[in-house]
Amino acid sequence: MIDFNRKTILITGGAGFIGSNLAFYFQEKFPEAKVIVFDKFRDESRFSNGNRTSFGHFKNLIGFQGEIISGDITNKEDLARLNDFKFDYIFHQAAISDTTVQDQKIMIDTNLNAFRDLLQMAKRHKAAMIYASSGAVYGKLPAPHKVGVEAPANIYGFSKLAMDYLAYEEMKKTDLPIVGLRYFNVYGPREYFKEKTASMVLQFGLQLLRGEKPRLFEGSDKIKRDFIFVEDVIQANIKACFAKKSGVYNVGTGKARSFKDIVDILCKELGIQREYEYIPNPYVKQYQFFTEADIAPTCEYLGYEPNYSLEEGIKADIPYIKKIYDEEIV
Ligand SMILES: NC(=O)c1ccc[n+]([C@@H]2O[C@H](COP(=O)([O-])OP(=O)(O)OC[C@H]3O[C@@H](n4cnc5c(N)ncnc54)[C@H](O)[C@@H]3O)[C@@H](O)[C@H]2O)c1
């Protein structure tokens, strides 16, 4: 295990869901690490789909004592503020994480062009680059999803695949570790401020606590995804720092579970019995009906092993779901 104490760590997107969990991981486990969060934070601007253009929120960072820099990864002047540091590790989480955004230019500018600049920064700093790719690169391909066979069904998945191709090119030119992590469907604490794009674990949990019927898409017992608890995503990021080989790896549990399973588990954990409501799926055309990560290479080259089944992850998430309900909803 690497001792991150006295190391300088950059977390882009550190005010978001996964980035803020990483920031607290380092603060708690390696109090002498210097952690810098760089994030655009949210403002009032919205995409044409009605969602915010960025989801970073100060409440995800309450208690975080490292340095915080507000800035946009697509703005070179903002990035220049990072020249004051000498990074050992870069965890690049900042992105348009909303898979329903249609604006292709801003998606490519934010997810791909900015990554090009950050890869150059990693080289200048001689830093390891661990970045967030996505299971969305597989689109509607049949599972299990293996690195090397991709067919994104939307501009988000396309932008993440283009990041991976760029990373492969850079891997040929440098010995510095570059690891892309294709997260599947992540859920867990600090995701509330993603609003409508937060995981269905949180959304169903809040529907149940509000006394509503959980709203599932028709056929939800057969719509299956590889749902992964955020603690396992953090584990993958940490293990990526001492990967046996640079590369792109899937981060999931390797087991597809249905949306109905989520509601069943939540009902059990919350002690709630309620009828379910079934609604038509408006996203049918670009919807992933079955995702399951092949995690064999992740286990072999990163030493990664998922610790949370869906049952265990939801159980661990319940205090957060209740806290959000108490603090933000009632
Ligand atoms: N959560 C998931 O299920 C999931 C699955 C696959 C991949 N990912 C990827 O993981 C990463 C983290 O996702 P998340 O779920 O934490 O999402 P998130 O939206 O909570 O976090 C992304 C953060 O990036 C920031 N950001 C956005 N645009 C920026 C910009 N131009 N400059 C600076 N900061 C900017 C946002 O403010 C936000 O805090 C993203 O790259 C996302 O695409 C997430």
UniProtKB/TrEMBL annotation:
InterPro entries: Epimerase_deHydtase, Heptose_epim, NAD(P)-bd_dom_sf. GO terms for biological process: carbohydrate metabolic process. Gene3D superfamilies: NAD(P)-binding Rossmann-like Domain (3.40.50.720), UDP-galactose 4-epimerase, domain 1 (3.90.25.10). It holds the Pfam family Epimerase. One of its GO terms (molecular function) is NADP binding. Keywords: Carbohydrate metabolism, Isomerase, NADP. The keyword Cytoplasm does not apply. It comes from the Bacteria. This is ADP-L-glycero-D-manno-heptose 6-epimerase.
